[in-house]
């Protein structure tokens, strides 16, 4: 299998290259990046397997030339609200299967609209296959399947799990990363959630308190993300669906609300607000409370009684955000390893084509700790409750 990894020399792409190099069915890797020197240096670590190429995702002819002979193209280059849909359009035109880590809900809607064009070209595109979205979608499906009826479905992640290395990188950058700009984009303005049984535009950073099996009550705050767009397509009958953040330091969310207000009133641009995220501050505190890192949470009914259920990862791949995001992306390449069992053509969310148990069995050996399979890696539980919120 010949794969092209766009943004291959970046923080996310680099992990994808390293992970793909260990897959037996990958015969050639093209590390494509606007930074040719970085792409070539990374490719040189895998002689006979990887090649570095320069690519400009804003130059359609150049992009088409880079991906033309690939079996699968990975898009690890953001921000996706600028580059997601045009890159997928190019892959469809080239007739190349596609995987990405799109974490913006707006381009997710645009890309889902390309489903008919993908089917006509026989292209399978799985979008949003990172940590969140991606792993969280599959955890949400595991939680939902525990209940007889699902009314509310959340995906979430803890900001306590942002590693010290990630924090240092953010502070060291002259300019904010695509991830930081994305974060401020999805914390400001309005974002789409699923509310009262239909899509709705709301202001992010709405606080809630939920009962969480094994962890007890936790506070969560809404943030714009693709899970709220895609999960209601698969889990029918939902009244509410959103992506949320949690964290043990309430002051952090107060600070995010302040930045939200400055962006919404146009005192700061998205880029300026993202730069504020990376400014030196207090040393990272020890979390005040143990919280789930990546999780799915569902409320509804079980055995005729109100109940909540949850599934969460006990550990994640090493390497901070890069590992947590790009290892799952690369393992999704297994979907294409056997042409006879490849997913159907179209533009699809992870929960539409990936069996959670199959995937977590693949992920377990890559996570910190000694996990034999997905049953050990994924924690799960449910409790009866009179009031899910």
Automatic annotation (TrEMBL):
Residues 3-126 form the Saccharopine dehydrogenase NADP binding domain. Pfam families: Sacchrp_dh_NADP (PF03435). It comes from the Bacteria. Coiled coil: none annotated. InterPro entries: NAD(P)-bd_dom_sf, Sacchrp_dh_NADP-bd. This is Saccharopine dehydrogenase. It comes from Caulobacter mirabilis. The lineage of its organism: Bacteria, Pseudomonadati, Pseudomonadota, Alphaproteobacteria, Caulobacterales.
């Amino acid at each position: 299998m010949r794969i092209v990894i766009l943004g291959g020399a970046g923080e996310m792409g680099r992990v994808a290259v390293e992970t793909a190099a260990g897959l037996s069915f990958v015969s050639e890797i093209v590390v494509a990046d606007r930074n040719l020197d970085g792409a070539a240096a990374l490719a040189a670590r895998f002689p006979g397997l990887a090649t570095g190429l320069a690519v400009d995702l804003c130059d359609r002819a150049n992009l088409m030339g880079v991906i033309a002979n690939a079996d699968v193209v990975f898009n690890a280059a953001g921000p996706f609200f600028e580059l997601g849909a045009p890159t997928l359009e190019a892959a469809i035109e080239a007739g190349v299967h596609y995987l990405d880590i799109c974490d913006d809900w707006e381009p997710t809607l645009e890309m889902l609209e390309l489903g008919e064009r993908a089917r006509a070209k026989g292209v399978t595109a799985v979008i949003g296959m990172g940590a969140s979205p991606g792993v969280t979608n599959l955890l949400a499906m595991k939680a939902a399947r525990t209940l007889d009826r699902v009314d509310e479905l959340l995906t979430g992640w803890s900001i306590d799990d942002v590693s010290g290395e990630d924090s240092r990188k953010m502070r060291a950058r002259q300019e904010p990363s695509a991830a930081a700009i994305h974060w401020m984009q999805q914390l400001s303005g309005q974002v789409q959630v699923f509310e009262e049984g239909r899509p709705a535009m709301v202001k992010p950073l709405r606080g809630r308190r939920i009962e969480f099996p094994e962890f007890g009550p936790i506070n969560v705050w809404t943030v714009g993300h693709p899970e709220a767009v895609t999960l209601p397509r698969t889990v029918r009958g939902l009244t509410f669906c959103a992506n949320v953040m949690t964290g043990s330091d309430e002051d952090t969310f107060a600070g995010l609300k302040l930045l939200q207000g400055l962006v919404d009133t146009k005192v700061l641009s998205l880029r300026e607000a993202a730069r504020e995220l990376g400014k030196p501050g207090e040393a990272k505190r020890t979390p005040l409370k143990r919280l789930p890192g990546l999780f799915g949470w569902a409320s509804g009914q079980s055995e005729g009684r109100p109940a909540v259920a949850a599934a969460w990862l006990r550990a994640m791949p090493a390497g901070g955000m890069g590992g947590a995001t790009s290892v799952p992306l690369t393992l999704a390449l297994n979907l294409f390893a056997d042409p006879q069992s490849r997913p159907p053509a179209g533009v699809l969310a992870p929960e539409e084509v990936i069996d959670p148990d199959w995937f977590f069995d693949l992920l377990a050996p890559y996570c910190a700790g000694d996990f034999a399979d997905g049953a050990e890696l994924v924690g799960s539980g449910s409790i009866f409750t009179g009031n899910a919120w």
